[in-house]
Amino acid sequence: MKKILQITLGIITSVGGFLEIGSVITAAQAGAAFGYQLLWAILLGTLCLIFLVEMSGRLSAVSKYTIVDAMRERFGFPFFSIVLFGMVLIAFMVLVAELGGIGLSLQILTGIRFPWWALPVSFIVWLLMWKGTFSLIENGASLLGLVTLSFVVAAVKLHPDWGGAADGLSPSFPGDQKARYGFIAVSILGASISPYLMYFYSSGAIEDEWDESYIPINRFIAGFGMTFGGLLSMAVLIASALALQPKGIDIDKFEQAALLMTTALPKWGFYLFAVSMLIACLGAALQISLAIAYFFAQGFGWNWSENLTPSRDARFSLTYTIIILLAAVPLLFGIDPIKVTMMSMALTAATLPLAIVPFIFLMNDPIYLGQHRNGWVSNSVVLIIILISFVLAVISIPLQIVGG
């Protein structure tokens, strides 16, 4: 029973990876601008994340190392420090966007502008981290996150053309707006394949005391959890394509994204969107804060665990306290969370090789994995998708900067 309940780890990882401000805004923009054409990007991101999450759990279950522990030991601290700087910088940007997403959701519900929510929201996230355990965060966010199924309800009620949606699972290119198409595609991939998800999942496996007997359930958790998140993200894109594209709405504000629910659910759609995003962004903010604290604590050899009291892992607790406080500062000055979201997602895709290539080396090292190391299928799928993401990012980000 305990192993079956571990599926919540996969669900919270998927909610933090797919259903948060990054994935919702990128999917909504894709649907509003290009209809079903960019469903393939969500499919690729989902496939890659299934493999990466499964690898992360397998590494921890077999070796009893987190990814950070193994990377620091295998490659040395100088190289690890480069990865640390790059990953923490991107994860911090995403945390700013997630806190902003909570604030924007509360703005919809209360009419009070999001900068006023920056400090209260940050305090609530910090308090949950300070007082909560890993199981509380894991199980609570998973159960509450099920409200995001409302996106599926909205998509189905709009009666999509399933044949057209199936065509969108194969890459195609628009006649115009190629730069924007590429930028949204790479942002979707960055929103899906976020390295902090791997660090969170790997550390969670250690927190939950996994061993080799968890390898089969780990495969199921990774496959089910990531597929769950991917389908929700596809539902957002489909609903946006049906509700927003015919009206010519080009999403650049959070409130415009909320309109994708109102066509299917006129009475409650606007508020369901706000509540769904509030819960999903809260889960993602907790996940990212933990991932950054894990990264520092494991990298520098500090005591760490969300299950310990702050007095027993003071530096770990101080790290997430400082990170959450700093992430509130840009929001106090009114920085646009949507712009932060889009750029951080694209930059995530551009920096994927920095995080993923060393990880693939670890997953093929018999010292850590023994007979459970990667096969050629796992290596090939991940590396090909990472290469596609990187090339798209290198081409599209400069074009977006010049054109935008």
Can you walk through the features of this model?
The model has no long low-confidence stretch (mean pLDDT 87). The protein is globular. Helices cover 77% and strands 0% of the residues. The longest helix has 34 residues, at 77-110. It has 20 helices and no strands. It has 404 residues and is an all-alpha fold. Helix 5 (67-75) runs antiparallel to helix 6. It has helices at 2-5, 7-17, 21-34, 39-63, 67-75, 77-110, 118-131, 134-144, 150-157, 162-167, 178-192, 195-207, 215-243, 254-262, 269-300, 314-332, 337-350, 352-363, 366-369, 376-403.
List the helices and strands and how they pair.
Elements: H1 2-5, H2 7-17, H3 21-34, H4 39-63, H5 67-75, H6 77-110, H7 118-131, H8 134-144, H9 150-157, H10 162-167, H11 178-192, H12 195-207, H13 215-243, H14 254-262, H15 269-300, H16 314-332, H17 337-350, H18 352-363, H19 366-369, H20 376-403
